[in-house]
């Protein structure tokens, strides 16, 4: 991979977008590599959770590559949006937790990439925004759909229509991120969060992700049925016996994913 680096240690994968001279902007090569990397990570039994971040001190991802976008015509722009959406849907549909460690600018496609991850944490210097209308376009990699679902229509439209950036503190207040760390502590903070998640039952994590992700697309009564079905399936697992047995015996659970 030319634009991504992958480090896997003890079931945790760090996937870093490596294009710092362009603030990690997402050109088509980066998108292609992201798609392949997530397809591989889904299949990789050594990996239980993924952290996505950007190389360098300044940016998570400063957007889709404007130099590439400028060349698009109407038909190819639609295809481009669908392509980016497909990659980000792949990320959102991952059966393993995916955390965005937002270490700087998360603009346009970068903000949309973070939105497709299951959890977003940020460093204090992070900045979030969907500046597309300042370029004469709209967010095309899911931003108009995922942002209002996450933070509500009013805040989403404020961000989308003004094209202004939010600080990490404002993003926390808006519910766009769930934790903020001083810049120097981001790596350790997100690693600790990921390790905590990895200590939980892997089948339960997978079911919780499915319940929330699929459930939000259903009417609530169907979502509740789906939740109950998954709850029932988990009751047949060794992990449930282990988790509850460990609680009764006042020891840490040793989950096997069985
Ligand atoms: N696409 C392509 N190149 C980008 C880019 C993007 N989205 N964002 C940054 N870059 C490039 C710049 O063109 C510059 O390249 P150069 O050194 O060859 O000129 C390099 O990354 C550094 O960016 P620069 O603008 O010089 O940094 P800055 O600190 O002055 O500003 C930003 C940082 C993030 C405010 C500014 O880069 C920016 O506004 N980027 C575009 C954000 C955007 O609109 N994204 C949505 C795209 S749909």
**Percent in helix:** 40-55%
* Category from helices, strands and their pairing: alpha/beta
- What's the number of structural domains? 2
Q: Please report the total strand number as a whole number.
A: 10
Give me the CATH architecture of the largest domain, please. Answer: Alpha-Beta Complex
**Global shape:** globular
Low-confidence stretches: none
Number of separate helices: 11
The CATH H-level homologous superfamily of the largest domain? 2-enoyl-CoA Hydratase, Chain A, domain 1
Q: State which percent range the strand residues make up.
A: 15-25%
Kindly report the average pLDDT value. 97
> What series of H and E elements makes up the topology?
EEHEEHHEEHEEHHEHEHHHH
What does this structure look like?
With 258 residues, the protein is an alpha/beta fold. The protein has helices at 28-43, 66-69, 74-92, 109-116, 143-151, 153-162, 168-174, 186-198, 202-215, 220-234, 238-248, and strands at residues 4-9, 12-17, 49-54, 59-61, 98-102, 105-107, 119-123, 127-129, 166-167, 179-181. It has 2 domains: 4-198, 2-enoyl-CoA Hydratase, Chain A, domain 1, CATH 3.90.226.10; 202-249, Lyase 2-enoyl-coa Hydratase, Chain  A, domain 2, CATH 1.10.12. The chain has 11 helices and 10 strands. Strands 1-2-3-5-7-10 form a 6-stranded mixed sheet, sandwiched between helices. Strands 4-6-8-9 form a 4-stranded mixed sheet. Helix 4 (109-116) crosses helix 5 (143-151). The longest helix has 19 residues, at 74-92. The model has no long low-confidence stretch (mean pLDDT 97). Coenzyme A is lined by residues 22-23, 25, 62-67, 105, 107-109, 131-132, 135.
């Amino acid at each position: 991979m030319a634009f991504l680096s992958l480090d896997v240690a003890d079931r945790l994968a760090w996937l870093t977008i490596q294009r710092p001279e362009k603030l990690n902007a997402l050109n088509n090569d980066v998108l292609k590599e992201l798609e392949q990397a997530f397809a591989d990570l889904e299949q990789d039994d050594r990996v239980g959770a993924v952290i996505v971040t950007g190389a360098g001190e300044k940016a998570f991802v400063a957007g889709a590559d404007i130099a590439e976008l400028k060349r698009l015509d109407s038909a190819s722009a639609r295809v481009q949006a669908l392509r980016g959406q497909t990659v980000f849907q792949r990320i959102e549909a991952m059966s393993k937790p995916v955390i965005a460690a937002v270490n700087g600018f998360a603009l346009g496609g970068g903000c949309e990439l973070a939105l497709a991850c299951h959890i977003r944490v940020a460093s204090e210097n992070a900045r979030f925004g969907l500046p597309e209308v300042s370029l004469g376009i709209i967010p095309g990699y899911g931003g108009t759909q995922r942002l209002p679902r996450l933070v509500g229509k009013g805040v989403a439209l404020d961000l989308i229509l003004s094209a202004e950036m939010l600080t990490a503190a404002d993003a926390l207040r808006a519910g766009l991120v769930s934790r903020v760390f001083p810049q120097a502590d981001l790596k350790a903070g997100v690693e600790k969060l990921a390790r905590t998640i990895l200590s939980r039952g892997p089948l339960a994590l997978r079911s919780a992700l499915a319940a929330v992700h699929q459930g939000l697309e259903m009417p609530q009564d169907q979502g509740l049925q789906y939740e109950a079905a998954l709850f029932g399936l988990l009751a047949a697992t060794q992990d449930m016996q282990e988790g509850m047995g460990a609680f009764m015996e006042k020891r840490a659970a040793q989950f096997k994913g069985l």
